[in-house]
Amino acid sequence: MELVWQTVVNGWVTSFSYAVLAVGLALIFGVSRLANFAWGEFFMVGAYMVWLLYTVGGWPFPVALLGAMGVVAGIGLITEVSIFRRLRGNISATFMAATGLIYVLQVLVGQVWGVGRTKPVIPPLAGSLEIFGASVGWQRVVIIPAGIAMIGGLWLFLHRVKLGQALRATSQDAEAATLQGVNPNRMALLAMGIASAMAGAAGALLSPIYSVTPYMGTRIILMVFIIVVFGGVGSIEGAFLASIILGFTYAVITTLADSTIATIVSAVIMATVLAFRPQGLLGREKA
Amino acid sequence: MRKHNLSRPHAGLVVSIAFVCVVPFFLREYYVGVATELLIFIILALSFRVILTTGGWNLAHYVVMGAGAYFSAIMVKDFGWPFWAALPLAGLVAALVGLLLSYPLSRMREFAYLIGSFAMGEAIRLSWNRLDYPFGGPAGITDIPRPSPWSIPGLPTIDFSQAIPYYFLVMVVMLVCLFAMYRIDRSRLGDIFKSIYSQDILAENVGINVVANKRLAIVIGSFFAGICGVLFGHYHGSIDPAVFSLGPLIILLAWLAVGGIKTFTGPIIGTVFFVLLAEGLRPLAAWRPLVYGLVLIAVLLFIPGGLEGLPAMVSTWFKKLRRRIKRE
Amino acid sequence: MALLELRGVTKSFGGLVAVSDVDLDIEEGEIRGIIGPNGAGKTTLFNLITGNYPVTEGRIKYNGEDITRFSPHKIASRGLVRTFQQTALFNEFSVQNNVSLACHLHARVALFGVIAHTPANQQTQRQAEKMTLEILELMGLADLKDELAVNLPHGHQRLLGVAIGLAAKPKMLLLDEPVTGMNPTEKQDMVDKIRQIRDQGITIVLVEHDMRTVMGLCQKISVLDFGKKLVEGPPEEILRNQQVIEAYLGVDETAT
Questions:
Q1: Which of A274, B316, C194, C226 has the greatest number of C-beta atoms within 10 Å?
Q2: Inter-chain contact A267–B120, Cβ cutoff 8 Å?
């Protein structure tokens, strides 16, 4: 019985861990048609910032978290202005540029701070959540309220704030939004800033749990990609829904078997569904 | 209709082939190995281009190459098949893997295609990592034998475990593959593929089955990728899942992005450029991937269309310069 | 039995109804015009007929066969072909290649034949080449056959668009604004060619804004407004119809 509760909590933890990354990626693609293949590296930089500020610098964890969000948002904004803006519209070129960015970020981080051992980040939250006999570390559980706060905050922004509504309109139909006077460059910056901050936060919150290496991004990003495609590209709601469905699938299969099989099964589910429904769960039907 | 001048080969082509035949005798053994790998990579780059001409960066392509490599390694090493049987069959196996992937892929667009193909390729690669039998798990498969020596009466025995004989083996296979891919590219089928890239909706409306043709392009490209896998695996003597992972995939993409994909020679230029760059940058060791990333981004920003378009870009620039000078 | 039959065809995009409950019958050998103000749903209707958009409700029958759920290339293979207003040409290809590509439908391609350049393959290519040149002659583009499509002047691009449609060997040709952007001479030329095409046994349906062209060319005209079919009839009736005049009020000056 405890196993069931364990899996339920783990399911939500996994879902929200992925959701924070997936929703941001879906937003960026919807708004500026950028397939940010370096998303895992953005996540990784967030984790490194926490190691730098919290473990090495001794700053309080919340400060390190904000620092991570700021730095990664900064990287997002810089790359958006210097690279992606100039290639806007060309999906292959922006994708290729993001791919080049993977190496740039991995090597920079690896060479500056060393590739050898993983960077230790002692969990700031000790102890575990005890629920119906199941026990899950607080450090893992905290991603749930954090995820709710970030995604909830994003939802409110997109639906209740005028600037956010413009952003939402752009993500659903960028051409129509531009015709209505929305500035595409501003929207792209905004989307990238918000999404990158979320990615940085994810890296920060998960740094005590995952081993911090320059290559940690490539391990987690695969599931995020599967989720975004499964949910329907460009659809933020789809990304969230897919995070829950595949997050739970992943957690359950990892408990029963292992994480590799969980990833493979998720990929197979995605491929099968997309063979019959190319637009994914909630994606736009290609007119 | 384009004329197919098979009877008047391009002078440059003859020179290139002659060069490729002669060059290994002037190189140290290490560089013969580099050249062998370069030839394999050229086939790979062109096989990727086949799929690209219908408009899709199939990120599972390197894994498909791996499928060919694993198939041949297992069949030759564990089941004692002759290399020459395994080679074409591995191509077919890779084509089959490509076919399976093409069912979801050929109906996806843009982002979904990119990320979806990557995810599916990774899933396959992870299963190699996971299964010790028959794939050898993370350690992969080692001691993959070279083809057995050829004893032709009257000639010295050709021992393929030596660098130069294997180089020539790869070269001959490469020329056959390139010939086939070139013929496809210049044919009606190649035109159909390019029409899909140009205007897929218009193509569909004049009776071209876009989905089926995209699938066909994936199958053809995958076949040749499988061949590369075999040549590669037997050259190095060992393969493991990391060989076909994201890192090498990025480099494959870079060859094409930098060289250009509009012409048949674009990918060749890109591949040669990058392999030479890699050799030249060896002293930089761990910083090398950074340079690759920066070169890639720089080319995308400043030489859009890749190196193949460089002569045209340069001549346009010169013309503009001359006009400016004339005015002053 | 009509060659093309539409019954209750409706298309909605989310909340927006682009085409509403349209019935249409096109007889073989007709030249039918479909007119209506901008946004009336004319091009959407074409997209529905040729399978580019899925139908929300309704049935489409061509030559007795229900083609409602068919994909565009399957519909084209049945002989129902359309041209496009924009994205009408394979820009990077030459004029000749544009047309010969569309001959694909009736030129079988075998992979081995392609690589080895077999006699069968060569024969197929010769036939496609012959048909291409005939079509180019008909459309008056033979002299320009090696020009890149994107370099052609506008009028010739429209002619090429029609040529591409012809190469697919249609029994019925749907022309989407074939004379838009042409000068009067070019328009008259296109009108003559359309008549020639019809005389070769191809039924024509065209969507057009240019009233004079439509009135002069078409025997029967269907008028759409806000996605619904308003009226249908010969040109003289349509010109005088009150509803039609209101729908167009202040929009089109050539309809006097």
A1: A274
A2: yes
pLDDT digits (tens, 9 = 90+) for C144-180: 888 888 888 888 999 999 999 999 889 999 999 998 8
Domain range holding B41? 23-244
Per the CB < 8 A criterion, the answer to whether C30 and C219 are in contact is yes
Q: Give the CA distances from residue B60 to residues A102, A209, B244, in Å, rounded to whole numbers and listed in that order.
A: 18, 30, 10
- Counting residues of chain B whose pLDDT is more than 90, the rounded percentage is 42
C55-109: pLDDT as tens digits = 989 999 998 899 998 999 899 989 999 999 887 888 888 999 899 888 866 655 5
Substitution target in B51, B62, B111, B211 with the highest count of A β-carbons within 10 Å is B111
Judged by a CB distance cut-off of 8 A, whether residue A86 touches chain B is yes
* ipTM reported for the complex, 2 dp: 0.85
Place of tokens 């070769």: C200
B124 and A267 Cβ atoms separated by less than 8 Å: no
Domains defined along chain C, listed by start: 1-79+172-256 (3.40.50.300), 89-169 (no CATH)
Q: Return the partners of chain C (3 or more C-beta pairs < 8 Å).
A: A, B
Within-domain flag for B184 = yes
Give B-chain residues touching C104 at CB under 8 angstroms.
Answer: 188, 192, 206-208
Write down the pTM of the prediction: 0.87
Task: Please indicate whether, in this complex, the C-beta atoms of C128 and B209 are within 8 angstroms of each other.
Answer: no
* Count of structural domains within chain B: 1
Q: What per-residue confidence (pLDDT) applies to C111? A: 59
